[in-house]
Amino acid sequence: MSERKPEWLKIKLNTGENFKELKRMMRGKTLHTVCEEARCPNIYECWANRTATFMILGDLCTRACRFCAVKTGLPTELDLAEPERVAEATEQMGLRHVVVTSVARDDLKDGGASIFAETIKAIRKRMPLCSVEVLIPDFLGNWDALKVVMDARPDILNHNIETVERLSDRVRSKAKYNRTLELLAKAKEFQPDIPTKSSIMIGVGETMEEILKTMDDLRRVDVDILTIGQYLQPTPKHLPVKKFYHPDEFAQLKDEGMKRGFKHVESGPLVRSSYHAHEQVESAAKAL
């Protein structure tokens, strides 16, 4: 059974004109956002500020991770026109920084890497001054697929470790803790100058010592940016919350991360991988 949600996790709803306009744009271009599909708690703040994380390759994920609200199933098609629509939406929104993520597409030989690359190129063509961050799946360890993404030169390569090693197999589906570390290391091998980023959600049963070890593991593969947020149970079918961390504990974790050499650490109860992403890329760039 989950603990009762504490006061500091209350979210201010803001469904003003920017939020409504962005929602209409997404539906008009038949685009998906992880903000909606994963029930992100920051959707009102981010959309009101005209920022969003696009989710490409459809809205059906071939995996069923026990923390994630994205729908699971077997996708039936690949939309080759999607990169251009994402680029059009980015231009219409006037974004300075865009985050592109996807469902896991284990049904595709390259896991969707080519669509990621085409999306990066399409955004750059329309918006050359807009920085592009990609939050990718692990491509089942297909490093040729990873190279396709890295060769398109995103401004940030993001792949989430999600949880500590002991809980990884229980929390994630198919993804492996050590494979995540290998992917982040390979990304640096392919393009040493591109910052890498990863995220940990806490509250699923980990200890403080395990969180710190995960930080150490990420630094060993030269990860530049770390985000740490509170796990929130999206539905009764998902993993229960074992602990709600206090904001003071998140502040402590930020300090621990900075001590370990991360260029930027975003740590707080409502922090998600793409939260304040533009500030993260600027902060990391100054430190590189």
Automatic annotation (TrEMBL):
Q: Which InterPro entries match?
A: Aldolase_TIM, Elp3/MiaA/NifB-like_rSAM, LIAS_N, Lipoyl_synth, rSAM, rSAM_sf
Q: Which residues bind [4Fe-4S] cluster 1?
A: 35, 40, 46, 274
Q: Which residues bind [4Fe-4S] cluster 2?
A: 61, 65, 68
Task: Give an example GO molecular function.
Answer: lipoate synthase activity
Q: How is the cofactor bound?
A: Binds 2 [4Fe-4S] clusters per subunit. One cluster is coordinated with 3 cysteines and an exchangeable S-adenosyl-L-methionine.
**Matches recorded under SUPFAM superfamilies:** Radical SAM enzymes (SSF102114)
Q: Which GO terms describe its cellular component?
A: cytoplasm
Name the cofactor(s) required for activity, per the record. Answer: [4Fe-4S] cluster
Top-rank taxon, per record: Bacteria
Catalysed transformations (reactions)? [[Fe-S] cluster scaffold protein carrying a second [4Fe-4S](2+) cluster] + N(6)-octanoyl-L-lysyl-[protein] + 2 oxidized [2Fe-2S]-[ferredoxin] + 2 S-adenosyl-L-methionine + 4 H(+) = [[Fe-S] cluster scaffold protein] + N(6)-[(R)-dihydrolipoyl]-L-lysyl-[protein] + 4 Fe(3+) + 2 hydrogen sulfide + 2 5'-deoxyadenosine + 2 L-methionine + 2 reduced [2Fe-2S]-[ferredoxin]
Among the GO biological process terms of this entry, one is: protein lipoylation
Q: What is this protein called?
A: Lipoyl synthase
Which species?
Aneurinibacillus thermoaerophilus
Gene assigned in the entry: lipA
